[in-house]
What we know:
Layout: H1 2-22, H2 28-38, E1 41-47, H3 53-63, H4 66-75, E2 76-82, H5 91-103, E3 111-115, E4 121-126, H6 133-141
Parallel strand pairs: 1-2
Antiparallel strand pairs: 1-3, 3-4
Helix pairs in contact: 1-4, 4-6
Amino acid sequence: MKILAFLFTLAFITSPLLAAEDAWITDVPKAMEQAKSQKKLVLLDFTGSDWCPPCKSLHKNVLTSEEFSKFAKDNLVLVDLDFPKAKPQSDELKAANKELSKKYGIKGFPTIIVLDVDGKELFRKVGYGGTPAAEYVADLAKLKK
């Protein structure tokens, strides 16, 4: 019985994190359509998920936080634009991400860009220096006003 209670508690605690992970898509045109229909902003995360220490830190400390997940659910369409070294990706996805990197002039990782429903850039942040999730979300929340 204790094991069952532990497993239930573990599932309850981790379910918001798993939901946040599932919310990320890789298709920018689809994200723009979704943003228009849901009246949300689009957050592009240019990342090197398996090799970039600041990317990993941003993901761990902000992008999977409860604060960010709650805010994103109602306000953002999340797009993962990954440039991994070891993680497998389709050639099509690699080409699409490379093209988007050129389009948005990506010079370093991580780069977070927020677009309005018309594709206008509202916010750009390159790198991650340890900003707490609540502060990061507060900066994003200002864009909705």
